[in-house]
Amino acid sequence: MWNDLASRLATPLRRGLCALALGGLTTLAQSAVVQIINANEPGIGFNDPTPVAPVGGNPGTTLGQQRLVAFQHAANIWARTLKSQVPISVLATFEPLNCSDTSAVLGAAGAISVWSDFPGAEKPGTWYPSALANKLARQDIDPGPYVDGSENDIVAFFNSELGKPGCLTGVGYYLGLDSRVPAGQLDLITTLLHELGHGLGFQNFSFGGVQLAGQPGIWDHFMYDVAARRTWLQMTEAERVASSIAPRNLVWAGETVRSRAEQVLERGTPELVLHGHGRHFRGERSLMVGTASFGPPLGRRPVVQAMGQVVDQPDGTGWACTPLSPANIARVAGKVAIVDRGGCTFTVKAANVQAAGAVAMVVVNNVAGGPPPDLGGTDPTIVIPAVRVMLEDGVLLKKLAGSNAVASLGLDMERLRGAAKGNRVLLYTPNPYAPGSSISHWDTSALRNLLMEPFDNPGMPHAVRAPLDLTYELLKDIGW
Questions:
Q1: Half-sphere exposure of 387 (CA within 13 A, CB side)
Q2: One pLDDT digit (tens) per residue for the chain, 480 residues
Q3: Are 38 and 92 in contact, with CB atoms under 8 Å apart?
Q4: Cα–Cα–Cα angle for 289, 290, 291, nearest 5°?
Q5: In what order do the strands lie in the sheet with 223-225?
Q6: Strand bridging mode 290-291 / 386-389
Q7: Which of 33, 133, 308, 454 has the greatest number of CB atoms lying within 10 Å of its CB?
């Protein structure tokens, strides 16, 4: 998984700057220059002398050299994409980061400082990350040098222990430049592009809805709460805090992203729609779902049927981990089977309700919060669709099981995958709040997968703009 800046970085603030002389600077747009500042001590990180063979177009012959070549390769991709007259300086290290056998911090990056009310700022009283502030001011507004390195624009650090025993054992970085990542390895270039994207400005400065030093960041102008029908700039702090944990409700309102979203994202958002006219439920309601890696995908033609709940546990829940009893078969045959998470794999549950005659399966999560994760697993014998819903929505489904209410599992073709109506792309707002991940990423429902999602997605192209990605489009919205 990606892991980004949190409490490690104390971001210096700068505002109320005096006017800066701009004489002699050209007004012609030019490609950016991204400079890598190697901050590692001798013998470690970028200076690690361990011999290695060249790989995937990376000519380095030591581990440190290959890391530096890969870093500069990713930096050059960004440099060719952006326009700035001011070099972008990245203070970078490879060093040990938090690890376990099953998880690890891959890396992190962010703006070293943020600025407001500088000459060239497009929005007053608003924080901008250093690299973007320099671009808009058309000169380095904080050249330094300082002992702590804060004259640089971006700080970036990456895990030097990845793949070693106790740190995602055996799952290391692939240092090639060609995207041909072997199974069981992680693409360093993709990680670098992601983290540099944060440092360039794909980063919210209103942490959890609380504005930095009581002032909005540039993101607050473009984050739009669908339910409240307001941007974060127009909301109170309490409203922003609530918005930051409302799954799949906060969207990016920038016009550049909206106009290019249809070139990047697939059309058709998976959903479960309830239809009812009884005592417990009347009308229609759309529920968020996580989709399954097994069984047929949801399609334009939905599965529409009444619901039946599996009950096979003493507490009244149903795991469907063993062949269903006659009573449970009677409940789910020809219907959408409602089962609970727990006790066995999702494919085992699906096989058992399928054998009982169910036409689809809905797994109810066993912990509160959302959005509902996808269902993992592989079983080619599963021929019914399966989805997962949040615990809160599962309570309603169970209440409606056996009634005249029906569930429709299919695709909302009016929406792009990972966007709300109107092609406004969703930001990642899980509940509970995830420090370092919430808000400063695209939502995990996006498909095609996007570079700036919070988790590593294998097979990502080395691209940062449409038609393969939307990172540059967001940066362009904020001023790049």
A1: 30
A2: 344 333 334 344 443 332 222 222 333 457 999 999 999 999 999 999 999 999 999 999 999 999 999 999 999 999 999 999 999 999 999 999 999 999 889 999 999 999 999 999 999 999 999 999 999 999 999 888 887 778 899 999 999 999 999 999 999 999 999 999 999 999 999 999 999 999 999 999 988 899 999 999 999 999 999 999 999 999 999 999 999 999 999 999 999 999 999 999 999 999 999 998 877 788 999 999 999 999 999 999 999 999 999 999 999 999 999 999 999 999 999 999 999 999 999 999 999 999 999 999 999 999 999 999 999 999 999 999 999 999 999 999 999 999 999 999 999 999 999 999 999 999 999 999 999 899 999 999 999 999 999 998 999 999 999 999 999 999 999 999
A3: yes
A4: 110
A5: 230-231, 223-225, 250-252
A6: antiparallel
A7: 133
Select from 430, 1, 439 the least CA-distant residue to 190. 1
Judge residue 185's burial from the number of C-beta atoms within 10 Å of its C-beta, 0-12 exposed, 13-18 middle, 19 or more buried.
middle
- Bridge partners for 284 per DSSP: 275
10 Å Cβ neighbour count for 52? 16
What's the rounded Cα separation, in Å, for the pair 400 and 397? 5
8 Å CB contact between 75 and 89: no
- Give the single-character DSSP code of 1: -
Q: Which residues of 448-480 are buried (b: 16+ CB within 10 A; e: fewer)?
A: bbbbbbbeebeebebbbbbebbbbbbbbbbbbb
DSSP 337-359: EEEES-SS-HHHHHHHHHHTT-S
Q: What single DSSP character describes residue 441? A: S
Tell me if the domain spanning 267-416 has CATH number 3.10.450.50.
no
Each domain of the chain, given as residue ranges in start order, spans 13-203, 267-416
Q: Which residues pair with 37 in a beta bridge?
A: 91
CA dist 109 → 94, 200, 298, 347, 460 (Å): 12, 9, 37, 38, 19
Contacts 24+ apart (CB under 8 A), 393-399: 393/287, 393/288, 393/364, 394/338, 394/340, 394/362, 394/364, 394/365, 396/274, 396/281, 397/274, 397/307, 397/309, 397/338, 397/362, 397/364, 398/309, 398/338, 398/364, 399/280, 399/281
Q: Can you read off the two tokens belonging to residue 252? A: 């990016």
Q: Look at the alpha carbons of 134, 139, 142, 146 in this order and tell me if their dihedral is positive or negative.
A: positive
Sign (positive or negative) of CA dihedral 316, 322, 325, 331: positive
Q: How distant, in Å, are the alpha carbons of 130, 274, 300, 331 from that of 448?
A: 30, 27, 18, 37
CA separation for the pair 253, 472 (Å, rounded): 15
Gap between the Cα atoms of 363 and 246, Å rounded: 21
225 closest CA partner among 426, 71, 16: 426
